[in-house]
Write a structure and sequence with these properties.
This protein is 55% helix and 10% strand. With 314 residues, the chain is an alpha+beta fold. Helix 3 runs antiparallel to helix 4 and helix 4 crosses helix 9.
Amino acid sequence: CGSDALRFGLLAYTMQGRDVNLDILRVLGYRQFCNKLWQATRFVLGRFPPGWRDEPLPCALDVTTPHGPTAQFESLADGWILARLHATCAAVNAQLATYEIGAAVATLYAWWYDDFCSTYIEAAKSALEGDSEEARRAVRLTLFTCLHYGLRLLHPFMPFVTEELYQRVLQLCGRPHTSVMLADYPDGQATAVWANSHVLTAMDVVKAVAAAVRTVRAEYLRGEHDRYAPHVFVAVASASTRALLVRHARLLSALARSSLQPEPASISIIPADCTPPRGCALAPVSQDTTVFVLLSGVVDLAAEATRLNKASAH
């Protein structure tokens, strides 16, 4: 991974002009990114049964949208990651066409690290552990699609690790072994059917609420309370936003956990004029949405209030 990390780092520096003050720690960070690729691919490949073969993605086609046919997926997370993959394909191709190499590096890093590894894989874990075989099938196909497209997109920037991982992806589905160098480079036109602004907006809402829950848990449930699963209340003024969060409550719960913290014990979506139980810590999400995490009986609230008062005084 050292050669790929150095190559990726040098390409990222092209945004700064011809004079490069190379920070070796930044290159080390990209080496850790290579490790992230290995871990993500290993996770994905380990979730497929023996003899699995790829097939078309399970979706409906909406031909009434003003921008052309749009794929409609049963799962919000599936539709979102493919919409983000389309946006990434289109952006990287446009950036390469204008020689914005550093911007293309940033775009690819953001999709792989933030969208695929940090968000979609966490959502996929919940679906893969569920009881629905149809949901598991859809998630597997989406994971395979993301790997197949993502590795081809990344290959010019990290040739060695992507070649190795691409061969493993081909082996998974029984396709003939061929170099990723000979594969078509993904573009925005071929993936345009995945574009869906409504899905992107809906997922932004779910992610923002989940991030607020994780922030409160990280602030108050530390050390011996890391594994505590709290009850969460989300107060929402907008009826449409409440309906959205209720519809995707399972996804919200999956994204509200972390590597150290389990899913919340429960997540209740309530109107903004309802009062949550006493003993909650809160985190505002937007003007009409606030997250409340019940800490009573677990955290010494008086001691926390004293700590916060001291911190604000300084």
